[in-house]
């Protein structure tokens, strides 16, 4: 039988949960069904949501491609190298995201050798992807690094002793064992990219992603005009969560290694 | 043949120094020594998992010192098994051959063979997390064997398993030895385990090889007090063993002894000094072995006294007594005494 938490803790927990649930429920309840129906067939809303999903997915894939090797290298590097690199990675996460957007733009400023790439980023889907990836990839790197830390070096040495090269050991042992942590990081990265606003508006106000569209409608039409889009986004997010749970994605949990020393 | 010359390696502040060792083709070397003496470090250097500071490792005439671990024809059973938790036992066993490019029917056949050799067929579809300590050791052994290695490194492969599993694994190791004829280096703390398998014995202490050689010679001629103490058996004699009724009769020179357990043929007879009881008159005892002897020498051993006794031409045994017993029995150099010890105290190897 599991132990029962004290009554006071349960009461505080209920209050905390209610505080989190309140804005979500009120946004849903404030929206009339016909408004929700209209939003779900509004081409501008649908294209903003589709763009958000597509760019967040692309940003996550880029983060995976760039982040996994970096995470592995960090996991196997010295403490000093790791603290310097992780401080660099923390900056995009901690920086106000509009500032992160400006920082990205400064890479492509006039006079910079990369300035010629600016037209590919300003107000383009690629610009959205770059902004999303810059602020969300560090989450993947940190999560994957923690996952690689959990892979015992002894198992990699065992793989080497069995004839696997360093690269094969990575793909056959380290990566599969770190997959849960990487998956957790990828989901966080994707969610972070999907909701990114600050860096995206600086680089690409248009084409509008869902967060930009909510802001745009709020400025233009106020609460009443933005609520249906918000309600639709809440329902979609809930559906994604339900789907992930249904297909059994459990990003957290140990790697299941058993050492038989003294077993 | 495995040849190790002038090997030095360092792990933190621990250093392995000047290791020189030769194991002939098909040889079985048991490596013993106290915890922290460098046994596992030596295996890691041989396997290529730790770079030596100097020296060389040669296997079948090829210098493998500079080879990465994946290029060495070596199977390594780690002390903690190190089974891959995301793979089944079958996949764990297939790992090595796959990594070395074996595929298809040949791979399947190899895995089947390795699982069968160690008697782990029924474990094939289990995950490491579902295995007992003994089963994990079988799986780890099968995984190393699947490489059909020229050199097999076993780091305490029988530790932490129950008696029945240990006996079974011992039998399996004997069969593997017969079938595959690899060179084996087997690290253990268990003397009897070593004696049941080895034809060569090496002792390590503080990163150095204290003694190495043929089992009988290492056992009967310890080169240092460490070796003698570590091996524990002070009396080691060569003899011929025959089954005689329910017992085994041992012919050691002109002396006849009885052992409760044994095997027929040429054997080593081991007896601990503390298992031999001395008396001045012929004892009426249930002990199956009663010999006449003469005290050759006495030497103090802490609170006890070691008594060296001649029991036949060129056959000497050592016993220990307390100073009080020495006084009471009047045991001095030249005294005639009776020695008694049980058949179950006699170890036949």
Task: Give your account of this protein's structure.
The complex is a heterodimer of chains A (263) and B (349). Chain A has helices at residues 7-29, 33-41, 43-75, 79-94, 97-107, 118-121, 125-149, 153-161, 166-177, 179-195, 198-203, 210-246. With 263 residues, chain A is mostly helical. Chain A is globular and about 65 Å long. Chain B is 27% helix and 37% strand. The longest helix of chain B has 18 residues, at 163-180. Chain B is elongated, with a radius of gyration of 23 Å. The mean pLDDT of chain B is 91. Chain A binds chain B through residues 152, 154-155, 157-165, 168, 172-173, 176-177, 255-263, and chain B through 47-49, 68-70, 74-76, 78-86, 95-96, 99-100, 127-129, 131-133, 136-137, 140, 143-144, 147, 160.
Let me know the average pLDDT of chain A.
91
How would you characterize the largest beta sheet of chain A?
Answer: none
Q: Strand portion of chain A, in percent?
A: under 5%
Task: Report the sheet-strand fraction of chain B.
Answer: 35-45%
Number of H- or I-type helical stretches of chain B: 9
Structural class of chain B: alpha+beta
Count of individual helical segments of chain A? 12
User: What would you call the structural class of chain A?
Assistant: mainly alpha
Oligomer: heterodimer
Low-confidence stretches of chain A: none
Task: Give the strand order, joined by hyphens, for the main sheet of chain B.
Answer: 6-7-8-3-9-10
Greatest interface and its residue counts? A-B, 26 and 35 residues
What general outline of chain A do the C-alpha atoms trace?
globular
